[in-house]
């Protein structure tokens, strides 16, 4: 029986084509130099990281130094659009590094500056769902159509899967649901007369100190 040859270079070639196109279409060619794109299996069993951009230039080619963008196995185990969104996410990090914008906090969480630049290239940005996790990105409606029309071979990306990650994360959805369930509730209290408002983790029945109007409670 004839076996399919493993052609990782085909996958990387399509990612490079997407990188070039997205730099032109979404960054107006503002990324001044290419990055080395590599793919690898997630090195930690419980890692949910899809990609990584190296601030240091780790590669040289003909005396030219380059940054690296790593696309981890998790990014390949969904639709090709998620793989491309991961690449775009790391390109945002590359752009922020280029213009000397610090887009992560000291503990590595994506901050509001990252959120701003990610939204500029049409990534859908989610607010942190639990404490100690920064902003995350996803495929927006705009990018969904853009990726469908992108002149690359999607099938080569879709065919690539990380078996190690799939075997060790069969309970991914359950873990995500558990994190959401454990998210501490917060409430916002508003006065409809003087527009005074504040938030608290405590569930209370209150009146406004200014006008004694009952405060309206909303779950955040």
Structure report:
The protein has 220 residues and is α+β, with helices and mostly antiparallel strands. It has two domains: 8-181, no CATH class; 187-219, no CATH class. The protein contains seven helices and ten strands. It has helices spanning 8-26, 80-98, 112-120, 141-149, 154-158, 163-168, 172-181, and strands at 36-40, 51-53, 59-61, 64-66, 68-72, 124-126, 136-138, 187-190, 197-200, 216-219. The strands form four sheets. Strands 1-5-2 form a three-stranded mixed beta sheet, covered by helices on one side. A three-stranded antiparallel beta sheet has the order 9-8-10, with no helix packed on it. Strands 3-4 form a two-stranded antiparallel sheet. The termini are far apart.
Topology:
Blueprint: H1 8-26, E1 36-40, E2 51-53, E3 59-61, E4 64-66, E5 68-72, H2 80-98, H3 112-120, E6 124-126, E7 136-138, H4 141-149, H5 154-158, H6 163-168, H7 172-181, E8 187-190, E9 197-200, E10 216-219
Parallel strand pairs: 1-5
Antiparallel strand pairs: 2-5, 3-4, 6-7, 8-9, 8-10
Helix pairs in contact: 1-2
């Amino acid at each position: 029986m004839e076996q399919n040859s493993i052609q990782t270079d085909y996958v990387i070639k399509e990612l490079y084509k997407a990188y070039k196109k997205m730099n032109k279409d979404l960054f107006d060619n503002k990324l001044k130099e290419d990055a080395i794109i590599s793919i690898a299996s997630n090195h930690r069993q419980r890692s949910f990281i899809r990609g990584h951009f190296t601030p240091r230039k780790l590669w040289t080619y003909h005396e030219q130094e380059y940054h690296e963008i790593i696309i981890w196995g998790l990014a390949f185990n969904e639709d090709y659009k998620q793989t491309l969104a991961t690449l775009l996410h790391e390109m945002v990090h590359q752009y922020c590094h280029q213009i000397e914008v610090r887009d992560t906090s000291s503990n590595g969480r994506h901050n509001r500056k990252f959120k701003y630049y990610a939204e500029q290239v049409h990534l859908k940005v989610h607010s942190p769902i639990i404490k100690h996790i920064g902003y995350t990105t996803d495929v927006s409606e705009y990018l969904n159509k853009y990726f469908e029309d992108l002149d690359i071979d999607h099938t080569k990306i879709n065919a690539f899967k990380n078996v190690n990650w799939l075997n060790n994360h069969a309970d991914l959805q359950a873990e995500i649901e558990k994190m959401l369930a454990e998210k501490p509730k917060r409430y916002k209290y508003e006065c409809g007369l003087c527009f005074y408002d504040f938030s608290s983790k405590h569930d209370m029945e209150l009146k406004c100190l200014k006008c004694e109007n009952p405060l309206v409670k909303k779950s955040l």
